[in-house]
What does this fold into?
Amino acid sequence: DQVAKPADKKDQVAVPGHQVTVNSVQRKVGVLESPPPGRLPNSMQVPAETNAIPFAKRPKLDTPEAPPQTSNDNQNRIIPCFLLEDCTDDDDDIRTVKISSSQLDQSVIEINHSNSNKRSGSSAYFYVDSSDSDEPNNSSVNSEPEGLINSLRTVSDHRIAALSKQMLDYYNRFKQLPHNVQLKIKLRDALCALIKVPFFQCYVHIVGSSQNGFASSTSDADMCVVIPTQLRSNQKRSDVVQTLHRIRGLLRQCSFVTRPLVVPAKVPIIRFTDSYSGFDCDLNINNLVGIRNTHLLRAYGMLDSRVVPFIFVVKYWARQLGINHAPSGTLSSYCLALMAINFLQQVQPPVVPSLQTSASQYFNRDIPVVNLSRLESLDLSWWTSSNSSSLGELFLWFLRYYAEFEFSRLVMSVRTAGVLSDTRNSESFRDKHIAIEEPYDLSNTARAVYSAGHFQTILSAFRKTANLSTTDSDLYKLMAAPRT
It folds into this structure.
């Protein structure tokens, strides 16, 4: 990950009286004017002509018209269904099954593959919906324990294809631009040059969505200052706040910093605006877990091309429905990313594995953060998902999965690629409405959801959008699902 490390003493920038200006820092400090070719991950490469536009002005995509429905019950009907398990590499996850009207009372149809190119003896199980009712099919079939949805509503393949296209288009229009990344790198370097005057051994990490690949072109710049001399497990919170006030004093003398304010949150930060780039910035000290989970989430985004646009759309769906604001008692973007990844681990076949299990040499709590490998050099080629579901399919499954999730009984765990029930009554998760395990320190990242009212708002968003998707899968209508 992007790290600014201090230079040797002989290379330090002389800043008499700590009077740091945008020119003395950004012009004299070894600022990376543009990343070397190929250094940015593929997930952050954006065509130069791509411009972000306000959501309200987003043009609506044309949705293909549905094929005409026949009213003749004596004819065979084509019913698109979700493939639940035993998918082969060359299978599609959306299928059409031709059945006669006499079979429509069956809730599950088994298809045996005899093609020599497929696994011998493999079977595909499908839910079918034979009614004209808008109510979802409540039939059940043997499924994976504590992981898969128990009831699915069939959605036509043309609607899912249109939804997938909308999701990818939305991501490509609003994702973080390389120019934004460069501006944040310059800000990171400027801050490092400033803070190393009193704290010579410090270094600065870009953390959060700006670094893990899930950011938009307007996302804040989150930074973590690592001061090795203050790294101790029993460090008092008051000492951290005192150090932040000392750094704030330096920032107040910088021409490119406006409105620096110390926010005494659970993880104390300095919040300010960089007038040079226009980005708001949150700066914390020695929050090593934040560096580790940034490293982890960015790697998940590199495992499969669907992960980043999927999480990107999930975040903005949640924001439109008012459930993506931790200070207001709902879910943080980090919580939503963990929920999305845990879902992608639960579908069968899984889209992503547990990196902390499968690649523990890179994602181990005992590895010092200064030794974390640059993600560009990580070899993740060992993983290829056999799940061929489209973005649209995954998004609809995501909505229904959490619409029916047993929040009171289960803990979502990206670390184990599963859900946990035996830890739900532990101190971290007891009496909490939503339990999402932090992959490294094992705390509850959803602790901000402290009231039953906020929890019901979140649950209602999933259920109402899932219900709406049974009749209309247009992305922008799903983002405008009723909140109450």
